[in-house]
Amino acid sequence: MIKITVPASLPKLIRELTTMSVSNSCKSVMYKWSQRVRTKALRITPIDTGALRGSIGVDVYEKGAMSFATFYAGGAAAPYAEIVHEFEELHHAHPTQWKYLEHPIVASLDELERDIQEAIAKEMNLL
Known about the structure:
By secondary structure, the protein is mainly alpha-helical. The chain has one domain. The protein has 5 helices and 2 strands; from the N terminus they run ααββααα. Strands 1-2 form a two-stranded antiparallel ribbon. β1 (57-63) and β2 form a beta hairpin. The longest helix has 33 residues, at 12-44. It is elongated and about 50 Å long.
């Protein structure tokens, strides 16, 4: 969670607009980041019939002033999705791999943090 402290000396409306603007910027950053991660995941997702790759998606939503991204895979391919994701010992033809969702997410967390910091700095006129 990112918390921004706005000086109490600012009028209430300006504080609310600043908070809303930063929240919108963070949601935009989260959306763009999640789409890049999804693209990376698709590149390394094992393919048999294509149903698994076709089921990979992401939902970005807000709860209060926080933005979240939920990645998912499965649908009709759910049993296959879990097995392929969780068992390293299965053969995966290059460039596909196990943990096809987890690895791109973890590898991109620093990028997300940097992008959020930059968006906040821009909104606060610090860049």
